[in-house]
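Build the 3D complex.
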Amino acid sequence: MSTVADIDTVPGRGPVVTALVQVGRVLREVARRPGGLFGLIVVVGLLVVVVAAPLVAPYSATQQDIANRLAGPSLHHLLGTDELGRDLLSRVIYGARIAMAVAVPAVLLAMAAGLIIGLIAGYFGGGTDQVAIVGMDAVQAFPAVILALALLAVLGPSLRNVVIVIAVALAPGYARVVRAMTLAAKQNQYVEAELSLGVSTTRLTAYHLLPNIAPPLFILIAMDMPSAIAIEAGLAFLGLGVPPPSPDWGALLADGFTYVLISPWAILAASLALIVVTVGFTMLGEALRDVLDPKLSGVRGVSRLMPRAR
Amino acid sequence: MTGPPVSIEGPVTVPLLRVEDLEVVYYTEAGALPALSDVSFEVGRGEIVGVVGESGCGKSTLGAALLRLLPPNGALAGGHVFVEGRDVAGLSRGELRSLRGRTVSMVFQDPLTSLNPTFTIGQQMIAAQRAHARDHESKSELRRRVAEALTRVGIPDAAQRIDSHPHEFSGGMRQRVMIAIALLHEPSLLIADEITSALDVTLEAQILKLLAEINQTHGTAILLISHNLGVIAEVCKRVVVMYAGRTVEEGDVMSIFDDPLHPYTRALLAAVPSREQRGVVLAAIPGRVPSLLALPVGCKFADRCNHARDVCREREPAFLAHGERRIRCFIYDDGLARADRPVATPGTVAP
Amino acid sequence: MLRRLVMTFFVVVLIMTFLALLIHLVPGDPVRLLLGAKAPEQLILQVRHQMYLDRPVPTQVYYFFWNALHGNLGVDFASQRSVTSLIWAALPHTIILAATSLLLAAVVGIPLGVYAATHPGGWIDRVATVVSVSLITMPAYVVGLLLLLVFAVHFAVLPATGFGNVDNPADYLKHLILPAIALSVAWMGYLARLVRTSMLEVLNERYIYAARAQGIRDRAVVYKYALRNAVIPTIAILAVGLGQLMGGAIFIEVIFARPGLGMLIYNSIETRNYPLVRGGVLVVALLFVAVNLASDFVYHWIDPRIRVVS
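Done.
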């Protein structure tokens, strides 16, 4: 087995490769836990499906089989068909693409915004900090879905707007964690000493703060992915998501809801997808938290796996 | 009031507390830890007995085992605890409950954590009072009795302070409250587990004085658990010395202080600091208490004892009577050929 | 506490300012978008005037505050009824739904958490741990749809829509069962988890050991001494939860066709009825802020340690 030591001898690539080895070590630890293994399998499976949707799906998302409308599972259609005779399995598979196309950028955007706000609030403190806190409190006073709905009501539904709206709702979580860790780092003697030596803030941020902030942020990302996916599908269910005819999980639920008296299969198929994916990401997040830092379970926001408005 | 030391509940020969070859094991991920093993001693009615030893020697486990209050991973693995002649291990849930707090009470080291922070002193005392209430007493009657109990342990304005929360009391006052709770049902035995360790010297003296008074006026027997020989010497008549979960010497306090026999007791006494040095107790004994996970085969003190012979490392000495005392050491084991025994040369024990 | 009040005041001001300005996020002319391209110029002018959109922006904000303080949140376009009266009519049904759900969650979740904490490692504990994570992550609308499918459609034992006859408590209750369960499922899991963790912590405290040594009954020790201390930290989190619950309520009300606040907001978004959207969202946010503030007070009242510190 290669160790950090022999990799370090590769000139010029030390830090990057070391980081990769670290990631590998963390993933191995995660996979040793039953929940973590389940999470990893789900997430990796989801990624494969997203990338290889046309190869995995038996039909296209829109191909209609008029003879078999609202049908139950059969050999031709493993999960049945919807009201237009479209294959539900294929629609669920293509739906994963929409889910990820919204969730990934939304969470990354939320993290970027939270990082900037949290760093500024924590670093400057005082009045700036107070303003930031009032802002975060104000955003979090709205249930995530209500805020997203209100914003979408005026912005109008589109892929871009859905991403923005979810990012706004999730950003305060990141800002709080980053702010708390920045405050803690400022009290660190190391940092105090370097500050007194006149080391630039950028350098300090890059070398001291970011490595410390990274683990909780990774956990938060894993925990927020299911939130983002669930909010996106929820918005779509209400008809305010990514506009049709995207084979979105929420839209699938809405179609199923319309024909609930005739066929349960659309609801069952989309529910299954949503449950497996949200539980998978959460289990991964929990395992990550256990592996990266057991002490973090006390950090507000990081461990707060709580029901969200979805 | 419990009345005179001579009990009407049984023959005088039955001691209040009798511990016989007690063994307690904790089951942990690292393996089974023998926290207590072969512990034997007695406490008579109205007697004050001290238990002394370094931290980690099993003193607190002993207190918990006496009331069957061991954590879920702990178990009585052998031996017996008799309270008033009855084996504690054989008690039903109800009998056990009436043992706790009524026959035998317990006070702990840190009075702040021993009191529930979200209830008033009065609420907690009334709950303790009701735990063994014979009939339904009115609230005002209960309050009056609780206030009385507080006054008895020297808390001024008890009637007013009943509705205060624990954090509103000072450390010494909290310990008095704990003692008042323990005395509510006039127990025959009070187990005091390091009750003065969190207090300063002045408060410690006050609390010890209170214990002596309680013993005098109520005839309550006291088992005083402490790491501090000074504390033991102040109030106890007899003392039990523990090492690595075992009793190693037992006897009259005065004679043990004058003439410690077990090498460990000697080292312990040699290490008792003067008043100014309090807090560094026992730091002077060379070596360390062996880990419960890797106890030596023979005498547990052998590695720190400079009398140790081969026999000390081969098997463990028994806890045997030696005159008025009991000692666990081959030096005093008459069953062993003199040539094989280690010899005590006074003054050669580690200073 | 005073600091807390001041912060809350600023949060409310920020929320209201945001909502007053929200309509300016609409791309183009909100009134034209609202009334459609063919609306007569006369009507457009009238509505614009009604919404104060013909005034300068600061005046609009001022009017919104002034009117809101006097219980006037504007007028619904469609019905020309006051927004406040519409919200007043819908709000009780949502509050009953939310309260019933929280109650259900508490009745199931707290004992489950206590049981798990008093029997750690037992099979109920282990099953509950896995199940609660799944329950927490499950979106409310998925639970709602599945319950609808099973109990209202497949077995047809419970009504699927509406809130029943208000004058007939039994009927009203019957209509409340499925929505309340759907909304509470996540909270059952969450509460169980929360109570288990804090109960385990409390049961390790010295005063629990001391109470046992005093001969107090085990049941009294667990349910009177320990439970109170274990539940205190969950109060603040539950308050946050009530807000999130309001978000979930929107889906549940849509799925079960309950005319509550969530339904009102949803319908007003569909019809681009901005004053109604704004009013509904404002009430949800204010409720959240109020509940949080109240929980802080309760917290202070229950936990005397904090009472003294502040």
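The two ends of chain C are 7 Å apart (CA to CA).
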